[in-house]
Amino acid sequence: VVDRLRSETDGRVPFSVEFSPPRDAAAEARLWRAVREFETMRPAFVSMTYGAGGSTRDRTVRVTGQLAQETTLLPVAHLTAVSHSVEELRAMVGAYADCGIRNILVLRGDPPGDPLGEWQRHPQGVEYADELVRLVRDLGDFHVGVASFPEGHYRSPDLEHDTKFLVAKLRAGAEYSITQMFFDIEHYLRLRDRVAAFDAEQGAKPIIPEIMPITSLKSVRKMVELSGSALPTELEQRLAKAAGDGPDENRAAVREVGIEAASQLGERLIAEGAPGLHFITLNFARATSEVLANLGLGAARV
Ligand code: FAD
């Protein structure tokens, strides 16, 4: 991933996209339509999230393996520690390696059922993501990334604690981090400064900002609640105005505001020297490709 971020030579900032494991055959067909569309835009990498508690494990491994074997894309497999023993985690990494995946985004995950509920370590599992980083690195030649939280992780008592344990994951061998979504660039800039001030060497590792192009007010409110990110009042008001008062939100108007906001955020991140832009796609290509077009990214290269 880090090589890909650095090897972009045409002066454009690299971008990447996040997919989620499909739940059924129809969702899988939709995912593949998005995959093929993004493939023409040459993202630096694509990532595949890991279902809570490994709920869609077999399908996730199969589809991520197909990304490695049947496309020109570089897949990054997310892996969480939830409900897994160390032995199972090793087997998962082995299954990814067997289908040619060498890039893993290591996460602790959230408790199944109630993501905001009490975290329960598997009796033979790991407690924090830094242990999983070491475990994956010890298993072989894997390139590991981790999560970072511009507004602090919701379980962190303060930003100092949050920075300390992000740096611990980087020191354990992670080569980069991908942030939680955020809507105010100041959070990203402050995170970057905090990590650099805490440990200059780890601060030099790429912090890839995650962008969520909003297409529904209802679903972004839910996502924000679970992510610990704040939707700035001014943006929320614009989205609410666009959504209207009817029983169904005016999705086209919400989308327009969401795409404009994501494009502006992307533009500012590029100006601030972000190493790449990572987009949450929800397995749809359209919203992200509109943002990419606004930013002059993603068009086929000559
Ligand atoms: P950790 O780094 O372990 O941190 C968890 C909390 O513990 C933090 O508050 C941290 O500060 C604290 N902490 C860490 N180490 C210590 C220590 N040694 N002592 C005391 N406190 C400590 N979830 C999924 O289920 N599937 C996914 O695919 C997925 N993908 C994600 C992708 C990105 C880019 C991001 C940002 C999040 C993703 N998540 C995913 C959500 C993630 O699993 C949750 O946010 C989870 O609550 C935190 O995971 P972590 O890896 O940051 O945990």
From TrEMBL:
GO terms for molecular function: FAD binding; methylenetetrahydrofolate reductase (NADH) activity. Keywords: Amino-acid biosynthesis, FAD, Flavoprotein, Methionine biosynthesis, NAD, Oxidoreductase. GO terms for cellular component: cytosol. Its cofactor is FAD. It is an enzyme of class 1 (oxidoreductase). GO terms for biological process: methionine biosynthetic process; tetrahydrofolate interconversion. InterPro entries: FAD-linked_oxidoreductase-like, Mehydrof_redctse-like, MTHF_reductase_bac. Pathway: Amino-acid biosynthesis; L-methionine biosynthesis via de novo pathway; One-carbon metabolism; tetrahydrofolate interconversion. Pfam families: MTHFR. It catalyses: (6S)-5-methyl-5,6,7,8-tetrahydrofolate + NAD(+) = (6R)-5,10-methylene-5,6,7,8-tetrahydrofolate + NADH + H(+). Its EC number is 1.5.1.54. Belongs to the methylenetetrahydrofolate reductase family. NCBIfam families: fadh2. This is Methylenetetrahydrofolate reductase. It comes from Antrihabitans stalactiti. The gene is metF.
